[in-house]
Design a protein that fits this description.
Blueprint: E1 44-46, H1 58-68, E2 73-76, H2 83-90, E3 95-98, H3 102-116, E4 120-124, H4 128-143, E5 146-153, E6 186-189, H5 196-208, E7 213-220, H6 221-224, E8 234-236, H7 247-258, E9 262-266, H8 274-284, E10 287-290, E11 305-308, H9 315-323, E12 328-332, H10 338-341, E13 353-357, E14 372-376, H11 379-386, H12 419-431, E15 437-440, H13 444-452, E16 461-462, H14 472-484, E17 488-493, H15 494-499, H16 503-509, E18 513-519, H17 524-533, H18 547-553, E19 557-561, H19 567-576, E20 581-586, H20 597-604
Length: 628
């Protein structure tokens, strides 16, 4: 039962999600068995005590269904077409957060899922309500989150008659929006209460599987208020299960890895296997590298950690691959896509990859020419099985490995804050001085944060490398803080803050979200990228904005930072604040975003950069940012 069309850098989920569910709903027990990809032996038992549910509307029954599946929070924007559904949500045990934009609600739902390890709900009204949410749901699928969309649609008698915000096959394509496909793992339009038991079963099975699960329940306005009568509600005794390979295949992978020096490439999909990865590395002496989303799963201060690969990564990784190349690399929970590898041939070891993923279509895709031994399994289970084959004594001594190096920050004071100085302050006050989750927005915020910040524990750093939508962190930070009931910090650009933020929502619900804005009055990745490409005339500038005035106008607090000497005090004030807080940092937009391994990777792909200091390519081969 494989997960397809998702970013496997975010695939791996153990059964932990269901171990904390209340026992008055479904009782979930973690299951571990070989080749356990089929769930044909599901036992269906009574879901509720056998009494009449004639007082329940369809909307109320759906909400009750979702609470039984462990959903405790819902994010969305209401509207007339889903008034009954909104009312049912609002009178349930869920915390319902009313957002200002549906995309922001979806991004918040993603981050709430990852912060809580529980499935979340996004709710929207008809027409633009649903289409506004699609970018966030696209990201949910790519990130491997467990999110369920509840949307309103036009009732059958009114379809094709130009109803207000008509949502039907007359106005929208049905394929992929109301049916399973690339966007939704499961999607259905509910036309009758009689469908609910089967829908409950589908959702339970989908949420029990490892990896992400994005579902869409489209509910016509008229159906929401119809009554649920004479339905036998099931209780599905579904075990949250793990996928693992046959013992012989695991034994073969052990022989391939332990016969010669190997390295470990850690992705976001391995986030629940931090202890097992560290044990494997220390037992074998293997060097460890990670994807940008994998930061912190293996401690970045560990002597066997070589660096971060890909966008914003460390040049030490390329140095290692050139000077001390391993025979093989064990890839755990990453697709090795462009932001993680740049598809650089330098990253291909002489004897290829042992690639572990729950999606059998992932191994071999990024490097189709490389020798790849594929294993379909979740990471934690695979490593536990692999541990039975550890050599009695380490086969390879730990040699001196290249280590990530933070470039020395020159002394001096400019007219604005250098981004690298800001990152050093964030490292000290936020990363090391608090337990806050840190989210980095796409663009230069991503590269500065990924390159300069160092994490020693998993699940504290979140970036999106698949969809990379602007506004993901600026709104997702609200969901992360709400779910963990603690501080979450978003490092964002001014463009993303202007595009989509939920400061007002954080104020309404007293959510301890912090925004650190890299304010340079530009879409700076675009500005710098076009300059490096030697392309002129494109306008990437933004009129200067005072985000503290914006924040205070919404009821939050904030501080503008123009001098580097004020950074630490401002960040301490933000962490101590009892209200949502914006730190508006006027940065030097001319400081080049960190390249590090990127230029070496490009050179390995045949892209030549001249040496006159302006970074302009001397080849006619087209290059696009952010790869430059």
């Amino acid at each position: 039962m494989s997960q397809k069309h998702t970013d496997s850098d975010s695939q791996i989920m153990t059964g932990d999600l269901y171990q904390e569910l209340p026992t008055n709903g479904s009782q979930y027990v973690e299951s571990l068995s070989h080749d356990s990809r089929e769930l044909n032996d599901i036992e269906i038992q009574p879901f509720f005590p056998n009494h009449s549910h004639s007082a329940l509307s369809v909307a109320e029954a759906i909400v009750l269904m979702l609470t039984k599946l462990g959903v405790s929070s819902a994010f969305g924007v209401a509207g007339g077409a889903m008034a009954s559904l909104w009312n049912a949500l609002s009178n349930s045990s869920m915390q319902v957060l009313n957002f200002r934009h549906e995309a922001g609600a979806a991004f918040a739902a993603i981050e709430a899922h990852f912060a809580s390890n529980h499935p979340t709900v996004v709710f929207t009204t008809a027409g633009p309500g649903m289409t506004n949410a699609l970018t966030g749901l696209f990201a949910a699928r790519g990130e491997g989150a467990k999110v369920i969309l509840l949307s309103a649609c036009t009732s059958a008698p009114q379809r094709g008659r130009w109803a207000i915000q008509e949502t039907s096959t007359y106005t929208l394509p049905s394929g992929g929006m109301f049916t399973p496909g690339a966007l939704f793992n499961y999607a259905i339009t509910i036309e009758s209460a009689a469908q609910l038991p089967q829908i409950f079963r589908k959702l339970a099975l989908g949420l029990a599987q490892p990896g992400g699960f994005v579902a869409h329940l489209s509910i016509p306005t008229g159906v929401q208020t119809s009554l649920v009568e004479d339905i036998s509600w099931p209780q599905l005794d579904v075990a949250a299960y793990r996928v693992t390979a046959h013992k012989d295949k695991i034994a073969k992978s052990a022989k391939l890895l332990f016969s010669e020096p190997f390295a470990i490439w850690v992705g976001f999909g391995a986030r629940n296997a931090a202890k097992e990865i560290r044990l494997l590395a220390e037992k074998t002496g293997a060097a460890v590298i990670c994807s940008p989303r994998g930061k912190g799963i293996f401690p970045e201060d560990h002597p066997q950690f070589v660096g971060v690969t890909g966008l914003g990564g460390d040049a030490s990784v390329i140095t290692y691959m050139e000077e001390q190349p391993p025979s093989r690399i064990l890839v755990l929970g990453t697709r090795l896509g462009e932001p993680t590898s740049f598809w650089s041939p330098t990253m291909v070891p002489a004897k290829g990859f042992v690639h572990v993923d729950i999606d059998p279509e992932v191994p071999g895709v990024a490097y189709p020419y490389a020798n790849t031994f594929s294993i379909q399994s979740d990471i934690k289970t695979y490593l536990q099985e692999l541990g039975q084959h550890f050599p009695e004594t380490p086969r390879f001594s730990v040699v001196s490995l290249p280590r990530p190096q933070i470039e020395a920050i020159a002394t001096g004071v400019g007219e604005s804050v250098r981004p690298e100085v800001l990152m050093a302050a964030i490292q000290k006050i936020i990363v090391e001085g608090s337990d806050a989750i840190v989210l980095a927005e796409c663009g230069n915020s991503f590269t500065w944060s990924t390159h300069y910040l160092r994490f020693t524990e998993p699940n504290r750093y979140r970036v999106s490398t698949g969809v990379g939508a602007m506004g993901h962190a600026a709104t997702g930070v609200v969901g992360a803080a709400q779910a963990r009931k603690g501080t979450a910090v978003a490092i964002v650009g001014d463009g993303a803050m202007l595009m989509n933020n939920e400061i007002n929502t954080a104020v309404k619900y007293k959510i301890p979200a912090i925004w650190i804005v890299l304010n340079d009055a530009r879409y700076n990745m675009c500005y710098q990228g076009m300059k490096i490409l030697g392309l002129k005339g494109a306008d990437a500038e933004i009129p200067p904005t005072n985000f503290v005035m914006v924040a205070r106008g919404m009821g939050a607090d904030g501080i503008v930072v123009q001098r580097e000497s004020d950074l630490e005090a401002a960040l301490k004030e933000a962490i101590a604040s009892q209200t949502p807080f914006v730190v508006d940092v006027i940065i030097d937009g001319d400081r080049p975003a960190p390249s590090g391994a990127r230029n070496k990777s490009l050179a390995a792909q045949g892209v030549k950069l001249n040496g006159n200091g302006n970074g302009k390519p001397t080849t006619t081969k087209h290059v696009s940012f952010p790869l430059v």
